[in-house]
Amino acid sequence: MSIILALLVFSFLIFSHELGHFLLAKKNGIGVTEFAIGMGPTLLHFDRKETRYSLKLIPFGGFCQMVGELEDDSEAMPENSFNSKGPWARLSVILAGPFFNFVFAWILAMIVIGSVGIDRPVASGVVEGLPCAEAGMEAGDTLVRVNDKKITVWRDLQLYLALHEGETVELTYERDGEERTVSIAPAYVEGSGYMIGVQSSGRTDTGIWDTIRYSLYEVKYWISYTLTSLRMLVTGQVGVNDVSGAVGIVDQLDTIVDETAQYGAYPVFLELANFCILLSANLGVVNLLPIPAMDGGRALFIILEIIRGKPVDREKEGWVHTIGLVCLMILMVFLLFNDVRKIM
Prior knowledge:
The protein is α+β, with helices and mostly antiparallel strands. Helix content is 53%, strand content 19%. The protein has helices spanning 2-27, 87-116, 131-134, 154-163, 208-235, 246-260, 265-288, 295-308, 314-343, and strands at 32-48, 51-66, 123-126, 142-146, 149-150, 169-175, 178-184, 187-189, 193-195, 198-200.
């Protein structure tokens, strides 16, 4: 079951990404020769007008192959080719993939929040003997900021405290329309770690407008979470054991199903949708990184073209992306073995 769910999850994530490229290509008059989900040999396909729609054997990755995308600039290129279009048109096509990942995450967030509500940053109570109670905070206080970071949802506070474990923070909250700021030094509790002693009020129901608005906050939260995780990976704050590839994702999906199956199909769906919000936001962010062969790397060459007034030599750009693709394949193999090692 987890394998089937993983295939569906990967397919939806890839579809939303490639759909962005596809729609913007069509809007800019660029021909699409093939729209594929998966890689490798073709399992199923059908042709419509100029485009072949394919389902491939290997369920990781996908592509939107555009006319003349890999060819050099020349007067002989057809009018509907990718490289015959201006840099701004090409840039919009490249960036549309990650943008649609964020849109897909937003749609899922509206479904989840519309079903389970919002984790508003409102305290349901404080624990006696811990810092927030000693600082005079009470149930009903609305958390506004922790140091200079705005608190929109409860998890903003949780993430900040996790990243600054044990550090003294300035916590601003609102009571009766008045903002108050207190200095909080987390206390170490045996078996629980560092705690400040303020309790969440949990999820609360919301209207349509707040559902839309907080869904955007949800996507923003996971984008911020992904960027923070990447920064911690680069700086060595997290190691390779904290990084997961496809096998690790399948294992996490299996855990989600096992832990929620007893509550029924809809709770399982909501948990999977919530996990997909993270995955989709993660995919969008990673694709925007200026890495060769990724959308961000391709966008960087177009931005250089805009600045220089002429394109970078296509052959040299092609070599850069080829090297980047090889490195990505090596990384995927490494993550595969790393996932298997962790599971075993």
